[in-house]
């Protein structure tokens, strides 16, 4: 007849035995199958212990019956070494690592289910192993907690307002989790770090890593960088102001023109000078437009002058680490990753000395009849109305600066 034996670790064994076989002989068969010594086995049938001398037929065991097997062996030293602490870390990380390493089947499964843990097992960093085991323990605990909460919601009172809120939140979170899983499977590159666009340039003969950002209104250079490039002597402090983004930085002034070298060609460039120690040089939209630049992400190059010069964007390894410090850099950048100035020059036409006036105290120079008169005057010079309005707003209503910008563009 056939009997089924279930072990304490839920292993199921099917044995073909004679009905008149003794329990001791059945244990001998199980010793071969389970590697548990006969003396350490305890067989139970219908909750009653089966003695070695008894026969299966005398105990009432029939075809297809189930017998439970438990081991009464004391935990071995090796078993203790492979146990875990309450926080999920291994009691003996070295023994745990060696045990997993020696089991090729287990390692193969681990590479499929948890490649990060498999790599750590193969390494020599036991601290990292313990840390990863703790993380996995926390993840399992959180998963169990969520499952318990979901189970509780199934039996919650459907007329309980708080229970309904929890059910709604659980449904919403499930949708988020499914969306995250789909993105991880079909769009994994979305989780990778995006490196900003930098190119090699020379400013007044000094080599720099220029941050290219079409989301910044103006080209910007830091005070320290301008000093290193020998340009601080040209700083026009009449253009003081505040650059607004996620945070804000002080605009120290403007350098109206200086040579920059892109590839083998020199181009004229103007910059705002900011008190921004974590950002050296930002190539903004004003100069990108002026020099007809193309940000070619397919070939990963910046094309200047409509394509007469092409310079490659730098790889992450070629960008100084201080430029990649996102936490500090974000304090001085906009949501697009570049400082955005609220005004190019806080100067007044009635203040020839260049005195600073408060932006909140003075009237808006980009509205009213005076502004319309400036627009009409510049339109008569042959410029489009939209371009004129944009230029005047760009320079806070300063007619001369707007005209210079339009002629220069």
TrEMBL record:
Gene Ontology cellular-component terms listed: cytoplasm
Localization in the cell: Cytoplasm
Gene Ontology terms for molecular function: aspartic-type endopeptidase activity; polyubiquitin modification-dependent protein binding
Skewed-composition ranges (Polar residues): 332-367
Location, primary (coarse class): cytoplasm
CDD domains referenced in this protein's UniProt entry, alphabetically: RP_DDI, UBA_scDdi1_like, Ubl_Ddi1_like
GO biological process: proteolysis
Signal sequence interval, chain numbering: none
Disordered: region residues: 330-369
Keywords annotated in UniProt: Aspartyl protease, Cytoplasm, Hydrolase, Protease
Protein family (similarity comment): Belongs to the DDI1 family.
Protein name listed in UniProt: DNA damage-inducible protein 1
């Amino acid at each position: 007849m056939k009997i089924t034996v279930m072990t304490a670790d839920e292993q199921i064994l099917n044995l073909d035995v004679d009905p008149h076989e003794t329990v001791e002989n059945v244990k001998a068969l199980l010793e071969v199958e389970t590697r548990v010594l006969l003396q350490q086995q305890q067989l139970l049938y219908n909750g009653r212990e089966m003695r070695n001398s008894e026969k299966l037929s005398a105990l009432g065991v029939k075809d297809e019956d189930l017998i439970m097997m438990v081991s009464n062996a004391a935990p071995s030293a090796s078993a203790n070494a492979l146990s875990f602490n309450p926080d999920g870390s291994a009691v003996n990380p070295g023994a745990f690592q060696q045990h997993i390493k020696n089991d090729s089947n287990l390692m193969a499964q681990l590479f499929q289910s948890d490649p990060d843990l498999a790599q750590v097992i193969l390494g020599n960093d036991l601290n990292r192993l313990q840390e990863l085991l703790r993380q996995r323990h926390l993840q399992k605990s959180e998963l169990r907690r969520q499952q318990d909460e979901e189970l509780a919601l199934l039996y919650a009172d459907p007329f309980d307002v708080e229970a309904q809120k929890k059910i709604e939140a659980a449904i919403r979170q499930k949708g988020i989790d499914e969306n995250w899983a789909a993105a991880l499977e079909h769009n994994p590159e979305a989780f990778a770090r995006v490196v900003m666009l930098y190119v090699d340039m020379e400013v007044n003969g000094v080599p720099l890593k220029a941050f290219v950002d079409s989301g910044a209104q103006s080209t910007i250079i830091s005070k320290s960088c301008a000093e290193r490039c020998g340009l601080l002597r040209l700083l026009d402090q009449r253009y003081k102001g505040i650059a607004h983004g996620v945070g804000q930085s002080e605009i120290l002034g403007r350098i109206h023109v200086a040579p920059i070298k892109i590839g083998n060609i020199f181009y004229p460039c103007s910059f705002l000078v900011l008190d921004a120690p974590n950002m050296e040089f930002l190539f903004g939209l004003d100069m990108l437009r002026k020099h007809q630049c193309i940000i070619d992400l397919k070939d990963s190059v910046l094309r200047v002058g409509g394509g007469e010069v092409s310079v490659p964007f730098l790889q992450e390894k070629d960008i100084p680490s201080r430029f990649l410090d996102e936490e500090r850099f974000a304090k001085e950048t906009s949501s697009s990753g570049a400082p955005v100035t609220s005004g190019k020059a806080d100067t007044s036409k009635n203040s020839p000395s260049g005195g600073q006036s408060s932006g909140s105290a003075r009237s808006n120079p980009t509205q009213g009849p005076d502004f319309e008169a400036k627009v009409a005057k510049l339109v008569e010079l042959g410029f489009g109305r939209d371009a004129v309005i944009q230029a005047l707003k760009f320079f806070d209503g300063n007619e001369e600066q707007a005209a210079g910008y339009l002629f220069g563009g």
